[in-house]
């Protein structure tokens, strides 16, 4: 399995179980032990265990190797060793305490790309009205404006 495919598989597995604050770090120039480090957060021990288990299952299903998993008993910080990629799944408080991002601050951050992403640009946001312009009316605004006008029109009371 290529490194890019492994990272995509891991990030997709993390997203599937709603891992938060996913960071992918390129640590190839900083250590010879692994090339990438992925850090993610979970809200509870149950969620961190579920996230780590999902990563293991998805990597194995994609044909990758899982060399070890540490910390499942405690669930506060689970380490998944995938060889070239090391995955840290931590509870938010534990992550804030150990602050791995600061420890590995020299590492380059990589944009995470999940398998679910289509590669298309996100839909453009509606243009905001500039000063002096009126914003285009949405159906809800139009209905509300009509109701308001109907109630305040004195000719309607006759």
Automatic annotation (TrEMBL):
Superkingdom assignment: Bacteria
Keywords: Cytoplasm, Repressor, Translation regulation
Sections of the chain in a coiled coil: none
Single GO term (MF): ribosomal large subunit binding
Protein's cellular compartments: Cytoplasm
GO cellular component: cytoplasm
Entries under SUPFAM superfamilies matching the protein: Nucleotidyltransferase (SSF81301)
Region feature Disordered, mapped onto this chain: 114-158
Subunit field text: Interacts with ribosomal protein uL14 (rplN).
Protein task: Functions as a ribosomal silencing factor. Interacts with ribosomal protein uL14 (rplN), blocking formation of intersubunit bridge B8. Prevents association of the 30S and 50S ribosomal subunits and the formation of functional ribosomes, thus repressing translation.
Family: Belongs to the Iojap/RsfS family.
Name of the molecule in the record: Ribosomal silencing factor RsfS
The species this protein was found in: Nitrosospira multiformis
């Amino acid at each position: 399995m290529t490194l890019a495919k492994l990272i995509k598989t891991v990030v997709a597995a993390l997203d599937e179980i709603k891992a938060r604050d996913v960071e992918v770090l390129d640590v190839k120039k900083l250590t010879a032990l692994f090339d990438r480090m992925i850090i993610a957060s979970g809200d509870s021990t149950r969620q961190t265990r579920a996230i780590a288990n999902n990563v293991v299952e998805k990597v194995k299903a994609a044909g990758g190797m899982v060399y070890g998993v540490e910390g499942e008993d405690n669930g506060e910080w689970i380490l998944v060793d995938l060889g070239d990629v090391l995955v840290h799944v931590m509870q938010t408080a534990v992550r804030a305490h150990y602050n791995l991002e600061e420890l590995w601050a020299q590492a380059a951050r990589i944009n995470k790309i999940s398998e679910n992403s289509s590669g298309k640009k996100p839909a453009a946001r509606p243009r905001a009205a500039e000063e002096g312009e009126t914003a285009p009316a949405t159906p809800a605004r139009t209905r509300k404006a009509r109701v308001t006008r109907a109630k305040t029109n004195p000719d309607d009371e006759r």
